[in-house]
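Example (one chain per record):
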Amino acid sequence: MNKQELIEVVAKKVGHSKRFTGQVVNTVMEVITEELAKGQKVVFAGFGTFATSKKAARMGVNPQTLAKIKIPATTVPKFRAGKTLKLAVKK
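Predicted structure:
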């Protein structure tokens, strides 16, 4: 399922237009992104948690030249599924 398909399904379920539902979905994604950028967690009880994780700097190898390269430290987004979601998928 892609974003547009999600919008269509949600619009049908709640009885709103696809345009309005699209704005809501985009706003939710925007807020989640902004909070992660600030280093905050976003928790949906039972569904899961969006958070960030820091990856330390490390040495790597360029596969074309086999030269060693330094990979800088970075922050990456993570999602951890909640219990209700895990149980629903497990069935």
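Caption: The first helix runs from residue 3 to 14.
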